[in-house]
Design goal:
Number of helices: 4
Structural class: alpha/beta
Strand content: 25-35%
Radius of gyration: 30 Å
Length: 213
């Protein structure tokens, strides 16, 4: 009988990556830092009309301190029209939002537009009131009273004739909700309708698709 040789089972260990070796080294010297990955989804100006949409992968520690970064997506829009570039850029931005649902978002064009509106109308809820024609009582005119969407969450109320606006109001602004804006706009809409009914003037009512009456 032949003697059976003792066999030692040696596990196969895959070669460690540079990052894994560094982590092991940091653990060995007691300096290992736990990290996590965060994503930044950005729509930014490249020039006055050119735009960039990109996604940046950030490595941060558990306190949010940056440890490293890398751009993983990038799209450039260099047409001659800012409107066209922004339309295309927003389409890509929304697609990337689905791919990176937890990403922090920044839209420089939208931020700039919001800042300009804040300067024009004031922060938060803004109410634009045009001069009212006190003599606008001509019953032969056709009056249209409109309640329409204005932007993503705002609403406008407008009373007009064929040739001029009699009253205009806009409800919206940074930090306000669609429901809040609609409630305020609807209240103004009904008030104008009642005021003109008391004068014996019938107005043609035109409401937004958002109407919940």
């Amino acid at each position: 009988m032949s003697k059976q040789q003792d066999k030692t089972c040696v596990p196969v260990v895959p070669q460690a990556t540079e990052e894994q070796r560094e982590t092991l080294h940091q653990k060995a010297i007691g300096k290992h830092i736990e990290t996590k990955i965060e994503y930044q989804l950005m729509l930014r100006y490249q020039s006055d009309t050119e735009l960039v949409v990109d996604v940046r992968e950030d490595t941060v520690d558990l306190d949010g301190n940056p440890m490293g970064e890398e751009y993983v997506e990038g799209f450039f829009y260099d047409g001659s029209s800012l409107k066209k570039n922004y339309k295309d850029a927003v389409a890509e931005f929304l697609e990337l939002r689905l791919k990176y649902p937890d990403a922090y978002e920044y839209d420089e064009v939208l931020e700039e537009a919001t800042d300009l509106l804040a300067i024009r109308y004031g922060n938060g809820m803004f109410d634009i009131i045009a001069e009212v024609d006190a003599d606008a009582k001509d019953e032969e005119k056709q009056y249209d009273l409109e309640l329409q969407c204005a932007g993503d969450t705002g609403f406008s109320v407008r009373l007009k004739t064929q040739s001029e606006y009699i009253e205009r109001f806009v409800y919206g602004g940074q930090g306000t909700s669609m429901e809040e804006n609609y409630t305020k706009a609807l209240k103004k809409f009904r008030k104008i309708k009642e005021e003109y009914a008391e004068k014996g003037i019938i107005v043609n009512q035109i409401k937004s698709d958002y109407d919940r009456d």
